[in-house]
Amino acid sequence: MPDLPKKKVGIVACSGEELPEGTVTRLAALKVLEQLRPADTVTICLPLFLAGGEGDRAFARFYPTVVVDGCDKRCAARATEMYSGKPAAGVVVTDLVAECALDQPEGKRRLNEAGQRAVEVTAERVAVLVDDLLGKPAGHYSSEGAILMARQRAEMVAEAEVSQPEAQEEVVATCSCGSGIPVQKVAVDGHEVTLIALPAIFQQFHQASKQPGEETVNELLEVVKIYNAVPGEQEDAYRVALLREYAQFYEKQEVSA
User: Fold this and answer.
1) CB 151 within 8 A of CB 117
2) pTM here?
């Protein structure tokens, strides 16, 4: 198999600006990415995703994703499903607030106490989903336990903020785009398609000294089908495209060697 990045879970936050819950999604996602599960997650930038960011879309097709939506419009979930595939799991902040009997979040750029609690609860729930998707032992991160821990942490944070209000700082969400999944656009029967992992597959075949030819292209197609959906009726067209692209890649590698 190609040397691809370690399996991680993509986090897609809706980041809606018109509702406090949108801010909750950003901060909750950031907490998971930087504090709770930094080694197991990568963020997918929704605006870039919608604009056609191939790296982010490739990641969402290749690895499981957790979408964090602010409301029942589920913009992040719908966008992910439209461009890459159905998300592996999802959280809706308004539903979670109701489920956990939290007060209503308020504030768009600077959340109130209830909003901070919602961030904690949402982040803990997402962390549980990440563990489930990666098959890691849940330990004390059961759904109920996560909610209880989040409530306790939020209460401690709230108490500290009340006693030292001047120490509170506004949190600005950041985004680290790009998935690390190699992709390549290829013309197949006159149509441009994006194939996940193709550069890595080509590299692997070249290192194995597999020269372009009928036998090699049949092997290439089988490996490509592991990571990409190839319609049965188009396999011959894919073989033609793969042989052409691999021959060009092989020649360049030989010239530069």
Assistant:
1) yes
2) 0.59
